[in-house]
Amino acid sequence: MAVCTCMLIVVFLYLFFSGLKVNLAQLAALPEALPIEAQIRNLNGTLTSSMMIKESVIQALEDSVYVKDLSYTAELAAVTAEISEEATAELGQGSMTFPSCLGVNRVDALDGLPAEAFTFASNANSGMLGGAEPVCVMRKADLDVQGLSVGDNIRMTLFTITYPNDNAMNKLYWLGVYDVRIIGSFEVPVSETETRTAQVIFPVKWLRKEQAKAGSLFFADSAHFRVANPLELNTFKTEMDEAGLMPIISEANGSQRGNALTVNDETFIKTAARLKENIALTQILTPFVVVIVGFLGFVASYLLLQSRRPEIAIMRSLGVSRRSCFGMLLFESAVLELSGSLAGVAAASFLVDMDASLGLGVAVPFFFVYIAGTAVALAMLGRFSVMQVLTALD
């Protein structure tokens, strides 16, 4: 009877704490299973690119421990000729050789352009787009039109693009004349969805460096990333607020300023909340479960040992001390309860995938709590009149 009781309790405890362990593991794995994507937009949320995102915001994102996989771009245009800064006023984007260029901080900054769309020279790789050297990757169609090849050096006049007066009319700002090496090419894949591409792609870190040298302000035109530690969302959002990023206000007027942040965290928050509720409930119930197990050890042992009072009385009449009787019965109970605990672990392994460490973590504490209840039951059971019991037997 004692063996069966212990076995059933251990199975229950294993399933109880196994559920807690599974919930904790799921909560820890949730950031990878449900990554939280975030994107900078304008205040009313209508724009995801062609904005003016301050360099201080980009720097805050780069420095934040809550931001990972940051991708950002900057718009610019290029002419394959030397153009003086004074002549810029007479030029429009339509007169550019490459009116649509982008600076990127990583090769996958442009959604819709997979890695296989790029071909790099033998002495180059995609990581160079994350560097600060004067290199570029050009669309294959534009390479053919210009009669260029991967590996060529090309002299370009670069112009940054901004949106003064906070409207959609952009303006070109002369940046400088540069000799740039073409390290690769790319082809825009045929897709049913709209893909944002460019004719020429430059390392945005190089552009930032050159703009800093020229004393001009840098603006990114798009930025998106993943939240590095979604379990600390509130701290992350506080940090983003301090960086000057606001929540979307759909009623706001249209603007080219990239000063709002969308965080796609609804699914994550709901899932994490459910897991945390389950974990909290299990943790609240744990002390009660321990007390109940000890109480069961006391009650079950007391009831099972009631029938052994005559045996104890005879042992006492033969000169066995109360302490020795207590020790022998406790040892006998311990053997039975340990056997039941191990049997419970074995039975639990047939019900669920057994975790050896959890099995021992349940069986060992249970054994000591249960044996403590048994010891209390034995101590109470030993308080009886030996002569009264022996007389009753006669």
Task: Describe this protein's structure.
With 394 residues, the protein is α+β, with helices and mostly antiparallel strands. It has 2 domains: 2-26 and 278-393, no CATH class; 37-264, no CATH class. Helix content is 46%, strand content 20%. The chain contains 10 helices and 12 strands. The protein has helices at 2-33, 55-63, 140-146, 204-214, 233-242, 266-306, 309-317, 322-351, 356-381, 386-393, and strands spanning 37-41, 53-54, 67-79, 98-104, 118-120, 135-139, 153-162, 171-186, 200-203, 219-220, 222-227, 260-263. A hairpin with an 8-residue loop joins strand 7 (153-162) and strand 8 (171-186). The model has no long low-confidence stretch (mean pLDDT 83).
Write the layout of secondary structure elements.
Blueprint: H1 2-33, E1 37-41, E2 53-54, H2 55-63, E3 67-79, E4 98-104, E5 118-120, E6 135-139, H3 140-146, E7 153-162, E8 171-186, E9 200-203, H4 204-214, E10 219-220, E11 222-227, H5 233-242, E12 260-263, H6 266-306, H7 309-317, H8 322-351, H9 356-381, H10 386-393
Parallel strand pairs: 4-9, 6-8
Antiparallel strand pairs: 1-11, 1-12, 2-10, 3-4, 3-7, 3-11, 5-8, 6-9, 7-8
Helix pairs in contact: 1-6, 1-8, 1-9, 6-9, 7-10, 8-9
